[in-house]
Design a protein that fits this description.
Length: 282
């Protein structure tokens, strides 16, 4: 079965566990459009069979999260499930001061990669260094905060609720810590739900047990997430299957070759103006 599948991952289950259960049911290769931490909930999109070949062209989809951050506490993992390192009193905050801080994060920026992450340094994942208590140089990477919306402040619990639309690769736990710093204290992530990936929404997803019982209602159309690419329909795709270059009256590159309403290949324009097969998707 070659599909995109929307699953509402529960807390305290790893993305790997979900992927393996779907893999065992369908008995095909399974990939995903971005993992979720075990304690996080929400939209997990899986690709199965030949649809896994679409992954490089879907990875850049922005992601939307709803979360909460706890003020006055700093942990070694950047969330409330880690070891508490510091605790500080929190000064009185106003909604306008919080919103001003939120607005200061909008745009392109460098973000610190948390030590508890899967990013590799010298062949090892950062969380492996963390477990072994080995210090490494702080890593930074480029991200974009597209939107950061204030949803409320619980003064008694010292928690701020927010919604964030961010580029792929953005660490929400780091964002929570950075928000706390700009508010003059420390902070840690206390709750996280992914509500969107590109054009897809959590409302389209089913709980794992629902998906395992009946997959059909939770299948997604990949074309919706590939609208940024020009799609060219061909009646005869024999040259495509043979990996031959194509002469097309097009300007865009790369383009998607479509046959009988199915995307079958990605072609890229060469310096000689011919289109060359970059990836077969059959």
């Amino acid at each position: 079965m070659d599909i995109l599948l929307a699953i509402n991952k529960p807390a305290n289950v790893t993305s790997h566990d979900v992927t393996q259960k779907i893999k065992r049911k369908l008995r095909v290769k399974v990939g995903h459009m971005g993992t979720l931490d075990p304690q996080a909930e929400g939209l997990l999109i899986l690709l199965t069979g030949r649809k896994t070949k679409f992954l490089p062209y879907l990875q850049a989809s922005p992601k939307v999260y709803e979360g909460r951050l706890l003020l006055g506490t700093k942990t070694d993992t950047g969330d409330i499930w880690g070891e508490v390192l510091e605790q500080h009193p929190v000064d009185s905050l106003t909604e306008s001061s919080i919103q001003n801080v939120f607005q200061s994060f909008i745009g392109l920026q460098k973000q610190r990669v948390p030590m508890v992450s899967a990013k590799k340094v010298a062949g090892k994942k950062l969380y492996e260094y963390h477990r072994q208590k080995i210090d490494v140089f702080v890593q930074y990477h480029d991200i974009e905060i597209v939107e950061l919306n204030y949803l409320g402040y619980d003064k008694e619990r010292q928690e701020i609720a927010f919604e964030a639309k961010v580029s792929t690769g953005t660490y929400i736990r780091t964002l929570c810590e950075d928000i706390g710093e700009r508010l003059g204290t420390v902070a840690t992530m206390s709750h996280l739900v992914r509500t969107g990936i590109g054009p897809y929404h959590l409302k389209q997803a089913g709980r794992l047990e629902e998906v395992l019982e009946n997959i059909q209602p939770y299948i997604l159309d990949e074309k919706i997430a590939l609208k940024q690419y020009k799609m060219v329909t061909l009646e005869d795709i024999t040259p495509v299957y043979h990996g031959k270059p194509l002469t097309l009256n097009e300007e865009a590159s790369p383009i998607l070759i479509v046959h009988k309403d199915e995307i079958v290949a990605v072609y890229k324009k060469g310096e000689d103006q011919l289109y060359y097969n970059e990836r077969g998707l059959w």
